[in-house]
TrEMBL record:
Cofactor(s) this protein requires: FAD
PROSITE patterns the UniProt entry points to: FRD_SDH_FAD_BINDING
Organism the protein comes from: Nitrosomonas cryotolerans ATCC 49181
Keyword Cell membrane included in the entry's annotation: yes
A GO cellular component entry from the record: plasma membrane
Reaction(s) the record says it catalyses: a quinone + succinate = fumarate + a quinol
InterPro entries: FAD-dep_OxRdtase_2_FAD-bd, FAD/NAD-bd_sf, FRD_SDH_FAD_BS, Fum_R/Succ_DH_flav-like_C_sf, Fum_Rdtase/Succ_DH_flav-like_C, SdhA/FrdA/AprA, Succ_DH/fumarate_Rdtase_cat_sf, Succ_DH_flav_su_fwd
Membrane topology, as annotated: Peripheral membrane protein
Name this protein carries in UniProt: Succinate dehydrogenase flavoprotein subunit
Family label: Belongs to the FAD-dependent oxidoreductase 2 family. FRD/SDH subfamily.
Binding positions (substrate): 242, 254, 353, 398
Occurrences of domain FAD-dependent oxidoreductase 2 FAD-binding (ranges): 9-404
Length: 587
């Protein structure tokens, strides 16, 4: 069967904040850009971001980029790459003002400047009082950001391929990336999209866990495609559990609630964070707060009949503040927890929220893998940005509101680097004859499979296994069993069956293809977690409770082909300032 091919200067898979910020840069430079998205662009998960975007504007408290950098390095538990962190924090204010000038409707202070609120892990001076660094549009910052970027892209004539799913990466014999195969969901047609630059901006993969704040589309597709094409995945053991997902539902209650003055209580009405983070209490970083909640539940001080959640109290903020600053939160609490936070506390539990690991890149968004020249050789033609990438600015733990910043700073930087690289190589490389073979084989297998298990069933087994064996606290025996179980589930995935074989908008087929990607993400996570014998950031091991910089101040790389782990050094040297050496992390 002849397969349709289309050519572009650049292809971006993903139309969230990261993909759209990069697309804008490229379209405005006059390049022919295709942006693919499984959903309408403004439904990407960025739209759900509530709390804000970090930038040291200093509108409320004194602040500067160097303090922001220090907080981010400390928050990362020293696993973040300090060159990338310096780059991000130095450009933070600039990109936020740029968004303001694009028309993003930030909330305002009395004096007309952008409104900022405190968030976890933000200190004002090295180790000192809390800074107020998160720029916000009520509790709908991501919504404001994504719509602003979409409108700008429409204006710049970016070409969107809406409800198109990227399936596999195309590489030639030298390993250069030449584009992707993709499925038009409406018709079921598969095409080859060829490009001189391919950028993955496919977002997170939180859906590999059972309790998750992530959208259903967050299935780690970019990571799956990369892993299948021989690209290693970096630091996949590090998953952020957000302390306050609505109990039993998973929907997020933003840290902005605690930023505005809300706090956590156990069944005795005690502000238990006093014991875990005596200085900043509820605004310690997320790994610390999530562990505290888990400890309270384990030690029998949880609330409710099953003593399995805690309470988030905010009624003392008053109805006016709640209605003005946290209207979305109030709505979520009323709809999903059946409480009105103006009067009653919200039941919450730690819930998977963010993937710190991903496709390894440098701070220009170029994908880097170990090769003859060292651990970070650029893969020609391949870029990644946003939550699917591991730059790594978040290291072992991301600070709240640093992700929206990450996607805008590195979205723009990657766009700029692609423009430079395309000037150097103006011609398309030749596609290999077998460019679409792997994709077509995967689809053919699904079309012909008989007597297989159904996708939902195996997917459920995967999510349950991740939740149970790789949660907030990790145990050696559980991880070992987890690896065995995930291997078994991966095997089951190779023979899942879809009953509906039709072409038009076949969501069953799409879910099966997503499961292939979730499998890669889950395997990488479990195997990397078993490998790291220390506790750092979000990775808390019962048998190795301390951070061990002598042995483990290094990034993990997981190779799907032979399920092998390798490691590479952390970039401790910033661009211009002195390095922040690892030290004990207290809040
Ligand atoms: C509920 C919630 C609240 C949050 N709040 C904040 C906050 O206040 N501040 C903050 O800094 N961070 C926050 N975060 C994190 C932050 O929002 C995300 O990390 C960030 O928005 C990710 O942006 P992205 O562009 O990388 O990906 P996304 O916005 O997730 O976009 C991914 C895109 O990729 C597309 N895609 C995926 N796979 C494919 C495929 N195979 N083919 C085609 N397209 C594909 C999707 O359709 C989508 O367009 C929050 C996260 C959640 C879940």
């Amino acid at each position: 069967m002849a397969i349709t091919k289309r050519k572009f200067d650049a292809i971006i898979v993903g139309a969230g904040g990261a993909g759209m910020r990069a697309a804008l840069q490229l379209s405005e430079a006059g390049l022919k850009v295709a942006v693919l998205s499984k959903v309408f662009p403004t439904r990407s998960h960025t739209v759900a971001a509530q709390g804000g975007i970090a930038a040291p504007l200093g509108n409320v408290t004194e602040d500067n980029w160097h303090w922001h950098m220090y907080d981010t390095v400390k928050g990362s538990d020293y696993l973040g790459d300090q060159d990338a962190i310096e780059f991000m924090c130095r450009h933070a204010s600039e990109v936020v003002y740029e968004l303001e000038h694009f028309g993003m409707p930030f909330d305002r202070l009395e004096n007309g400047k952008i409104y900022q609120r405190p968030f976890g892990g933000q200190s004002q001076n090295f180790g000192g009082a809390q800074a107020t660094r998160s720029c916000a549009a009520a509790d709908r910052t991501g919504h404001a950001l994504l719509h602003t970027l979409y409108q700008r892209n429409v204006n710049a004539n970016t070409q969107f391929f809406i409800e198109w799913m990227g399936l596999d990466l195309i590489r030639n014999e030298q390993g250069d990336v030449l584009g992707v195969t993709a499925l038009e969901m409406e018709t079921g047609e598969v095409m080859i999209l060829q490009a001189r630059a391919t950028l993955f901006a496919t977002g997170g993969g939180g859906r590999i866990f059972q309790a998750s704040t992530n959208a259903f589309i967050n299935t780690g597709d970019g990571l799956g495609m990369s892993a299948r094409a021989g690209i290693p995945l970096e630091d996949m053991e590090f998953w952020q559990f957000h302390p306050t997902g609505v109990h039993g539902v998973g929907v997020l209650i933003s840290e902005a609630v605690r930023g505005e003055g809300g706090y956590l209580l156990n069944k005795n009405g005690e502000r238990f964070m006093e014991r875990y983070a005596p200085h900043v209490m509820d605004l310690a970083s997320r790994d610390v707060v999530s562990r505290a909640l888990t400890m309270e539940i384990r030690e029998g001080r949880g609330c409710g009949e099953d003593a399995d959640h805690l309470l988030l109290k905010l009624d003392h903020l008053g109805a006016d503040v709640i209605k003005a600053r946290l209207p979305g939160i109030r709505e979520i609490a009323m709809k999903f927890a059946h409480v009105d936070p103006i009067y009653d506390p919200i039941p919450v539990t730690p819930t998977v929220h963010y993937m710190m690991g991903g496709i390894p890149t440098n701070f220009h968004g170029q994908v880097v893998i170990p090769y003859k020249t060292g651990p970070e050789e650029v893969v020609s033609g391949f870029y990644a940005v946003g939550e699917c990438a591991c730059v790594s600015v978040h290291g072992a733990n991301r600070l709240g509101t640093n992700s929206l910043l990450d996607i805008v700073v590195f979205g723009r930087a990657t766009g700029n680097r692609i423009i430079e690289e395309l000037r150097k190589s103006p011609h398309h490389k030749q596609l290999p004859a077998d460019a679409a073979d792997k994709t077509l084989a995967r689809l053919a297998r699904l079309n012909h499979q008989k007597d297989g298990e159904n996708v939902a069933q195996v997917g459920e087994a995967l999510r349950k296994t991740m939740q149970m064996y790789c949660g907030v606290f990790r145990f050696a025996d559980m991880l070992a069993q987890g690896v065995t179980k995930i291997n078994e589930i991966a095997e089951r995935i190779t023979s899942v069956e879809i009953k509906d074989k039709s072409q038009v908008f076949n969501t069953a087929r799409i879910e099966a293809l997503e499961l292939d990607n979730m499998k890669e993400v889950a395997m990488a996570t479990m195997i990397s977690a078993e490998g790291r014998c220390e506790s750092r950031g979000a990775h808390a091991r019962n048998d190795f409770p301390q951070r061990d910089d002598n042995k483990w101040l290094k990034h993990t790389l997981y190779f799907s082909e032979d399920k092998r782990l390798d490691y590479k050094p952390v970039r401790l040297k910033p661009l211009t300032v002195e390095s922040f050496p690892p030290k004990a992390r207290t809040y």
